[in-house]
């Protein structure tokens, strides 16, 4: 059977067959040491490939954190290419956690790096930030539509320092002027919902999940940001990348209450908590977490 054309369709298929768990591939120096691996490009590659091997067939989504590979320069990027390639070949959805953002002409190149079919770092989706305006993302948005890729835009992040900025109130004026009075996070979410509704004609007959999602940390209260959860759940739903489970304190048992109507479209991400099970324990830890998550969502 042909692979679903859009990221949203592939995500919907993954939710149905492999569930909602995403493991973050975050090779912190202390984790490399705990795994008995060197803190260099060979260690990164080995770590990433072992996580991919553990994830394949057990869960559906991996999220390599680019920063840890970037620490080792070009050799780190070569390791990341191998890990991303292995994950995609294993049928896992790959979200490149690159958190790129810039003015339009520059962000276009970031989009090309991570979303162009056949590019060395090709992923299924990437994280981006829109603090220079969602409009700056026009290039990656167009590329994602054309290539069947996805974007996950930071809205309400899991870290406490973000609260004052992301709950700040939008001023009138500019292309986002109609959203004046709402929070920065809610304005971003609203614009991303709009991207999904305007993509629909091109996608499957009635897509259930859109290709453009937002990041809403599992440690925050979406109501505090005025985020319209019900509107996000209207088909094609705006998926949510939800980091913060495990090490940052969020629990799967709180997921339904936190995300309300949009809970069925949440990608629940955990890195350190799962990775600290080590190379011999990670497969079992992934299965256990996937089961727990499924029972909380079921
Ligand atoms: O975009 C992300 O993935 C992200 C957004 C956010 O709001 N908070 C957040 O922690 N993340 C990422 O998710 C991962 C969380 O890792 P753990 O706290 O170890 O599970 C890190 O790679 C973060 O960069």
Automatic annotation (TrEMBL):
It comes from the Bacteria. Keywords: Decarboxylase, Lyase, Pyrimidine biosynthesis. Residues 20-286 form the Orotidine 5'-phosphate decarboxylase domain. The keyword Membrane does not apply. Its EC number is 4.1.1.23. Pathway: Pyrimidine metabolism; UMP biosynthesis via de novo pathway; UMP from orotate: step 2/2. It catalyses: orotidine 5'-phosphate + H(+) = UMP + CO2. Gene3D superfamilies: Aldolase class I (3.20.20.70). Pfam families: OMPdecase. It is an enzyme of class 4 (lyase). Belongs to the OMP decarboxylase family. Type 2 subfamily. This is Orotidine-5'-phosphate decarboxylase. It comes from Leifsonella bigeumensis.
């Amino acid at each position: 059977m042909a692979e679903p054309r859009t990221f949203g369709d592939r995500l919907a298929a993954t939710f149905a067959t492999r569930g909602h768990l995403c493991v973050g591939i975050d090779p912190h120096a202390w984790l490399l040491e705990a795994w008995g691996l060197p803190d260099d490009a060979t260690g990164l590659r080995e770590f990433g490939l072992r996580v991919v091997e553990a994830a394949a067939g057990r869960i559906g989504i991996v999220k390599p954190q680019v920063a840890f590979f970037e620490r080792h320069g070009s050799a780190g990027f070569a390791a990341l290419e191998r890990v991303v390639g292995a994950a995609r070949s294993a049928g896992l959805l790959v979200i490149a956690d690159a958190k790129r953002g810039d003015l339009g002409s520059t962000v276009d190149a970031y989009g090309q790096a991570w979303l162009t079919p056949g590019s060395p770092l090709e992923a299924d989706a990437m994280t981006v930030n829109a603090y220079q305006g969602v409009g700056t993302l026009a290039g990656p948005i167009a590329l994602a539509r054309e290539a069947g890729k996805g974007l996950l835009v930071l809205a309400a992040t899991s870290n406490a320092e973000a609260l004052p900025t992301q709950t700040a109130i939008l001023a009138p004026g500019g292309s986002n002027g109609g959203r004046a009075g709402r929070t920065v996070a809610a304005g971003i979410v609203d614009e991303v919902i709009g991207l999904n509704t305007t993509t629909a004609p091109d996608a499957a007959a009635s897509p259930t999940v859109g290709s453009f999602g937002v990041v809403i940390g599992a440690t925050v209260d979406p109501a505090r940001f005025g985020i319209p959860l019900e509107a996000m759940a209207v088909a094609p739903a705006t998926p949510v990348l939800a980091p913060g489970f495990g090490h940052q304190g969020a629990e799967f048992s709180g997921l339904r209450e936190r995300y309300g109507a949009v809970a069925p479209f949440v990608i629940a991400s955990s890195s350190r908590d799962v990775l600290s099970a080590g190379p011999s324990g990670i497969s079992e830890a992934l299965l256990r977490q996937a089961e727990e998550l499924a029972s909380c969502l079921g």
